[in-house]
Amino acid sequence: MRILITGTTGYIAKRLALQLLEDKHELVCCVRDLNRIPDEIEDHPLCSFIKVDFLKPEDAEIPKDIDAAYYLIHSMSTSSDDFEDLEQQCAQNFKDLVETTDCKQVLFLSGIVNDESLSKHLKSRLQVENTLKSETYALTTFRAGIIVGSGSASFEIIRDIVEKLPFMITPRWLNTKTQPLAIRDVLNFLAGGLGKTELYNNAYDIYGPEVLTYKEMLLQFAEVRGLKRYIVTLPVLTPKLSSYWLYFVTSTSFKLAAALVDSMKVEVIGKPSDINSIIGIEPMDYKTAVDLAFQKIEQNAVISSWKDAVSSGRFKDQLSKHIELPKFGCFRDVKQRKVTDEAFTLNKIWAIGGRNGWYSFNGLWKIRGYMDKLFGGVGLRRGRTSDTYLEAGDALDFWRVLYANKEEKRLLLFAEMRLPGEAWLEFKIVDDQLHQRAVFRPKGIWGRLYWYAVLPFHAFVFNGMINALVKK
User: Fold this and answer.
1) Which regions span the lipid bilayer (predicted)?
2) Beta-carbon contacts of residue 272 (< 8 Å; ≥ 6 apart)
3) Residue 197: how many CA atoms within 13 Å on its side-chain side?
4) Residue 442 pairs with which residues in a beta bridge?
5) pTM score, whole prediction
6) pLDDT by residue (tens digit) across 155-192?
7) Does residue 409 come out as left (phi exceeding 0), alpha (psi in the -120 to 50 range) or beta?
């Protein structure tokens, strides 16, 4: 089948694309920025890519000869206050475009919406589902609750909490019940529902075999990790305080923390159906899902992470708009060293940040991360998806990867920390010389004052970093 897939760079779609390619389907992948095509599928013979922004669809050209489409666009962690309107607009534009094609089925991943009092997020998901319904094609909706897998937002947040806090004083919503579902099972539902006419114009709740509270999920997660954890829940933590609690303890943004707290007050219990037998799936239990996720992490084989979504940080533009370093009105810190072992230096550059640190004065980098978090930034907690691999669009601590090409020996990062201006950090090897450039474009007087305030630290931080990159 020829399949249109949206949200190609997102957590779900990136993994689903690989599974569909294994099943020998031909994919037409929609991306907003052609510089962010995932390396895993970029050169695949069954993949083609089209540039589409479903919020601005005027120039979009969707192929007419598609058989099915996946709608996997989500705005939960966007910084916009009107994400519901954006989601409806996006869904409507997608529908209008797909109705001009030969598409017979659209598959949509939504959230379980059975509680009488739905969160703002779940209401929006239900509205999107209603918007996508059409007389031209059949809609198949899979409604999932908490998704458990390496790199998923819920998994990484629980991981942060469990591994950092031996004793927890937590909000009362930790007693809310849910039915977690492994990412592998989610992908099997999405792929297995393709082309099944008995699923046309129907919605199905998909969920794991256990009903657990969030507190039980934390404790079972701790068991899998061999950790002893103690949890006390208090009724006095308001939604706003709960959001701040999540924001400072985990790697999530405040917007996403607030959306999650709002959703976590709602019970996510699925309605029984025959969907498991139709597709032939027996969803795995929660502990098995956690254990498999850590196997992927230990193998350094995490395919996608919610942190790599552009909405996880402050960067909103297309990468191509920032790939060329600005030349005017900027401050620069430029350093150069001779490279004696190019492979060693390149590997060190490609492993920078995350658990590996920044090779010099890591304590100062951590302090800068804490300061950024205090002022509403992303801080250092996002880390990186892989310890050794980078591609354009990846989150790297409080940076965003703009360009990563080992053959060209160039890595370019853009700062997503809170700054009175814009900052770039570039590493490039030319003629056995490593060029390290920090470029800052200030905004107003505060930007200039900021540069001069941090300038004394550059001498030893950036010198130490470039020295570590060239010396064994």
Assistant:
1) 449-470
2) none
3) 0
4) 421
5) 0.77
6) 888 888 888 888 988 777 788 899 999 999 999 999 99
7) left
